[in-house]
Specification:
249 residues; alpha/beta; Rossmann fold; 2 domains; 6-stranded mixed β-sheet; 4-stranded antiparallel β-sheet; 9 helices; globular
Length: 249
Amino acid sequence: MANAVDVQSLRKTFGKVTAIEELSFHVETGEIVGLLGPNGAGKTTAISILLGLVTPTSGKVRILGLDLPKDRIAILEKCNFTSAYVNLPGNLKVMENLVVFAGLYGVRNPKSKIMALLERFEIGHLHDRISGALSAGESTRVNLCKALLNDPELMLLDEPTASLDPDMADKVRKFLRELQKERGISMVYTSHNMRDVEEVCDRVLFMQKGRILTQGTPAQILEKFQESSLEEVFIRVARTGDLEEDKIK
């Protein structure tokens, strides 16, 4: 079975700035992989390339056994994306927004599917609310509903619990794990919340300056670098810029 994601020798430059440099990684089918790193590490550029929004300068990308950019439409039919920092059109009601996306995705019985998702994230009462009037946490949950409308095989999640209170964040983490177990969904997960990463991700990739510094399960990372938490590893990356083995404490 092909990996959900295969990235080989990816490079992306914007003028004289190199955002991604010789980036190679994979995501196995049914695996949740955390893509971590401080601001400017290249995570957003990498996600944009996986979505086909940005064309790499060089390198190869295969998603669900298909080639980007050649098979972009076929890939996007099997994927979805959510970000706490991307808002749906604010002048439409929640139901109207989601019906539009359901139509684009070819979802059957869209309103029943939408209401089931809204109830799952405890926001069914917001179906008639104008999207622009939602709180940040409510918008985050509506975006999660949008990302699940087409039953994707691969989800790209950018800070999916941002702005959520601890109770709802915990419910979202557990729900994503349930989806993985029940349907074998693969996920690429970016977050600055290391609790999210430790509870949700099977494997993590730490990025800095467009390249991968280290990777492994959360437990392997902690053992390898002799830190007490992933947050300490994250701080170390942000402050020193590396995690080279000869610099282990």
